[in-house]
Amino acid sequence: MPSAKTPRFFMDLTCNSPNLLNQSTSNSNFFTIFHQNIRSLRDKHQDLLSHLFPNFPHVLCITEHHLKVLELQNTCIDHYTLGAHFCRTTYAKGGVVIYTLNTVCSTSINLSKFCIEKDIEICAVKIKVHTSVLCIITVYR
Length: 141
Fold this sequence. Notes:
CATH topology: Deoxyribonuclease I, Chain A
Helix content: under 10%
Order of helices and strands: EEHEHEEEEE
Number of domains: 1
Distance between the termini: 19 Å
CATH superfamily: Endonuclease/exonuclease/phosphatase
Low-confidence stretches: 1-26
Strand order of the largest sheet: 1-2-3-5-4
Structural class: mainly beta
Strand content: 35-45%
Radius of gyration: 14 Å
Number of helices: 2
Shape: globular
Number of strands: 8
Mean pLDDT: 85
CATH class: Alpha Beta
């Protein structure tokens, strides 16, 4: 579960697009990305939101979600949309997922052909921020 002090990875990228940014972010000039190795998202997504409140990052990158595809598709995280994911089918645990804030328009990048369970698990989204395009990749090894 996330530490109450400092998240493992919190990255700010300058962004000048007021339409992209949520009013709840502390500084409207930043685009924020948060990563957490959650070791099972099941029953923890509300705790995760509580930790992030009130400054919800634009992108949540989560490793080791431990969910199957159907479970992941039915796991709703308030304020977020499922952007991209990889779920294990042969082995238990593992998996990666990217959620984007509802105000962020993202496109999933299909990287499933590069995934090997228990070796490398990845997913990615493409997001347009002002005049730039960001490709955000979540990797679990």
